């Protein structure tokens, strides 16, 4: 699909109310770190994503929300190179890219933290941090250097609850595991960190730690795309929201354009009628 500068960007697709047009006027893929245009994906007869347009700005937190089965994981897997879309185009800083493998994603600077985190329980934190980096710049480094880099990265992210970086990952709490997975992504000099339900299994204080970590990533100029079912988390960290409904992005824009009521309504019905009586959706 050919991008149409000026017609893309923030939108609430299911309404013609001009207040729903967001700030997308003039938005083109070159204004964003990553832009998707017309991305679709089918699995046999199942159409998991239809014509998805999404813009991810630099250094901001974008929350991807939607009901179970809406297509959120399918979307981030397409961005992460797990599978190629059936159709559509992706742009990285305005240039068309084909992210057909996880390696292609990681070479661009995309790091995805899946819900199962892909950490190795039987290895310690340092070993997990450097797993799979053998052929990169850290390949020739020794244990002490790797340990120092791990300690420094955790310190930079203000992760203070881990007792020792030589602890096996299986001995960590859910929040600490999440922190290690995020730190691993950051150490790879990622430009876009994607988190699939990072707080789903966490308690109150661990959730607060992960949310703080997400904010710190953005303050370091890293773009974050976070999937969450927890709207209070979303409203606590996100700069922008994109709502998926039945495989399409039906609404997206700055967080200030939404409140909990309108977000819930769009998640469950694909549109917001609440907006007409509320100043919160523009
Ligand atoms: N590998 C697959 N093969 C066939 N269908 C799939 C596959 N992966 C996902 N789907 C289907 O695509 C749709 C979207 O699924 P997806 O996992 O992206 O939803 P989700 O928004 O992440 O939901 P949840 O919030 O429950 O994690 C669902 O109908 C799902 O059954
Ligand atoms: Mg999912």
Name the features.
282 residues; alpha/beta; 7-stranded mixed beta sheet; 4-stranded antiparallel beta sheet; 8 helices; 11 strands; 23% strand; globular; disordered N terminus; disordered C terminus; binds adenosine-5'-triphosphate; binds magnesium ion
- Helical amount: 25-40%
Sheet with the most strands, sense and barrel status: 7 strands, mixed
Structural class: alpha/beta
Please count the helical segments: 8
Could you please describe the fold and organization of this structure?
- The two termini are 27 Å apart.
- Helix 5 packs parallel to helix 6 (204-219).
- The strands form 2 sheets. Strands 1-11-10-4-9-8-7 form a 7-stranded mixed sheet, sandwiched between helices. The protein has a 4-stranded antiparallel sheet with strand order 3-2-5-6, with helices on one face.
- The longest helix is centred in the C-terminal third of the chain and has 16 residues, at 204-219.
- Helix 6 (204-219) links the parallel strand 8 and strand 9 (223-227).
- It has helices spanning 72-79, 102-108, 125-130, 143-156, 174-187, 204-219, 231-237, 260-269; strands at 11-12, 34-43, 46-56, 61-66, 87-92, 95-97, 110-113, 192-196, 223-227, 240-245, 248-254.
- The protein is an alpha/beta fold.
- The protein contains 8 helices and 11 strands.
- It is globular and about 55 Å long.
- The structure holds adenosine-5'-triphosphate and magnesium ion.
- The site of adenosine-5'-triphosphate (ATP) has 11 residues, from strand 3 and helix 1.
């Amino acid at each position: 699909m050919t991008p149409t500068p000026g017609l893309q960007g923030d939108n609430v697709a299911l309404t013609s109310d001009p207040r729903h047009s967001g700030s997308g006027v003039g938005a083109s893929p070159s204004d964003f770190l990553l832009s998707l245009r017309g991305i679709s994906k089918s699995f046999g007869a199942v159409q998991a994503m239809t014509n998805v347009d999404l813009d991810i700005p630099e250094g901001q937190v974008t929350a991807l929300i939607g009901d179970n089965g809406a297509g959120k994981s399918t979307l981030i897997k397409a961005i992460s190179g797990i599978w190629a879309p059936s159709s559509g185009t992706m742009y990285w800083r305005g240039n068309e890219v084909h992210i057909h493998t996880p390696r292609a994603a990681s070479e661009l600077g995309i790091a995805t933290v899946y819900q199962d985190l892909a950490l190795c329980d039987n290895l310690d934190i340092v070993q997990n941090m450097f797993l799979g980096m053998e052929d990169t710049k850290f390949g020739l480094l020794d244990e002490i250097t790797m340990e120092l880099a791990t300690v420094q990265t955790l310190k930079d992210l203000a992760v203070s609850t881990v007792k020792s970086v030589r602890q096996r990952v299986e001995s960590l709490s859910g929040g600490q595991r999440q922190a290690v997975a995020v730190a691993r992504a950051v150490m790879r000099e990622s430009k876009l960190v994607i988190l699939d339900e990072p707080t789903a299994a966490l308690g109150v204080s661990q959730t607060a730690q992960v949310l703080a970590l997400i904010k710190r990533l953005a303050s370091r100029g890293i773009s974050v795309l976070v999937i969450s079912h927890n709207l209070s988390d979303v409203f606590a960290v996100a700069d922008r929201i994109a709502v998926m409904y039945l495989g399409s992005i039906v609404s997206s824009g700055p967080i200030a354009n939404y409140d909990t009521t309108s977000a819930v309504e769009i998640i469950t019905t694909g549109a917001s009628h609440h907006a007409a009586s509320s100043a919160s959706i523009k």
